[in-house]
User: Fold this.
Amino acid sequence: MSSPAVEPGTKLAERFRLEDRVHESGGATLWKAIDEVLARPVAVHTFDPDFPRLNEVVTAARVASRLTDPRLTQVFDATEDDGHSYVVSEWVSGESFGDMIAGGPLDPERAAAMVAEAAEALAHAHEANLAHLCLTPEHLVWTAGSTVKLLGLGVDAVLGDVTSDDPAREDAEGLGRLLYAGLTGHWPGDEQDSGGLPVAPMGDGHFCTPRQVTAGVPGYLDTIVCRAMLPETRRGLDPLTTPAEVAEALASVSRPSPLPMPTPMPMTALPVAASRSEGIDTVAPQRHTPPPQHTQHTQHRQMPQQGGGMVNKVAMTVVVLLVMVAVGLGAWTLGRSIGNAGTPTPGEESTTPTPTAAVKTREVKPSSVTGFDPLGDNEERGELAQYATDGKESTDWHSESYDSADFGRLKTGVGLLLDLGESVPVKQVTVEFGGTSGGTVELRVGDSPRLDDMSVLQKINGVSGKKTFTAEAPKKGRYVLVWFTKMPTYQGNYRGQVLEMKVLATK
Assistant:
């Protein structure tokens, strides 16, 4: 008896409702589905009854489900039966590596960082004897949660009937191809696996090296690609034959920003309506203070016992009356002072400060952002400048790397220049410098992009994390310059970095 047809709306295991058919090939269909128990989207592979490798794909999925690396797609369920056979896995939302490089190569270090994450995840999988064998730009994703995710481990190779006598080496070469694509925007392989990227140019019967295709590729990354997947150009270097070796070669690159941590809630007073059952006191504890004591303590003097008890009583009465008069006079004086507080006497000006109105500001978006190196022969990584104001701290502008904090005494500084499009009264500039440390930076403002024509708004030593530059009085200018006069340290070198910056001007 044939199994019922799988259509949109079909529910598997009484919880996975199939919704959209994403892809179909060779008797296997990929669906976007809803896990109705946990109310979340999932990816589901279903198979025709005569699918030839059903047992192999279910076995591979079950092995993958035991892996714990968060960079690998999580497998939730894998079932093989006479009715519906299926594999349920994590639904990953984000931007594929192919989409990211469709318009051209990435910043070299960012491309290397993503491939390094994939290499470490694959090394973990190979320890469990599970290979990928099908690495393409569409299998590597920068997720909506700002993490790297590798799709299709084990399962895609079985679906495509791909095998290898040396799976570790095959995956090492696949990682090399991914890095090549990220550095050049070209795919060094078959066109059907390119994800729409142009195929890499050839020379002398083999693919050109990344540096031959794209200017500015660091030499050490070019070498890693050659060692992983271009045997003709290794120049006597040992090949990288496993994902673990590729991961080790890329271990020194800085990694992409992780999932942003939730912003800590400010430590403000809790509302009175909050529940006390949570163990939080919502009413300030009452302090049992002693009753106020008079500040004019009189020493007890023992009255001489002249004339017996009546004399003592009279003397005590006089003392009490004197004390009462003194207290009453003091209270009247104090009350008069309080009553006159804030009311100037004739001919006298009030000393009560007049509240100052808060200065209203607005954010000014730059019309252009460029690297700034007036004493150099380039724009100091100008191709990355746009990332300093794109609203994403996962991207950044950074300078060239230097061997010393003083630029080898070849120049006085480098920086990042914002053109605001018009002259505005700049009040405050916030800059996120990221993970650098040390160094010195000046925030300059002016109506001319020449260094000497811009005045220094503020100077900060110790360039790390988020810094705020504030002018006592708004400084008018069209150009804002983050000017590094002493480079901070970064990953063992000296390099300036700006993840994000914001300019506020008075209204």
Q: What stands out?
A: The longest helix spans residues 308-340.
